[in-house]
Amino acid sequence: MKPNYAIVASALFLLGVSGNSVLADGKKDCTTHPQSAWKQRAEAESVAKAAGHKVRGSKVEGSCYEIYAISKAGKKVELFYNPVDLKLMKTVVK
User: Fold this and answer.
1) Closest to 62 in 3D by CA, of 32, 90, 93
2) What is the pTM of this model?
3) Residues 6+ apart with CB under 8 A from 18
4) What topology does CATH give the domain 26-93?
5) Backbone phi and psi for residue 52, each to the nearest 5 degrees, phi listed first
6) Of the residues 15, 18, 49, 84, which has the maximum number of CB atoms within 10 A of its CB?
């Protein structure tokens, strides 16, 4: 019996699409303001520390500040802050 290549190709495509969405768990759209209006990334780290997180690092992700931290419960978390008002937009527990 010969495999139906159209079905195999479709299955591989769907697997690839769903696999990419699983990896993309962050947030990239926190603000539309220009970077000149953003507060310093260190201020976002301070907000995370004040909330009880142990900050391990940070970076700019799209138009968000992404803070890598350990929560009070000891879990790894990624915190996404709006860089203009430092509002917490999303938390991802790893």
Assistant:
1) 32
2) 0.74
3) none
4) Nuclear Transport Factor 2; Chain: A, (3.10.450)
5) 100, 10
6) 84
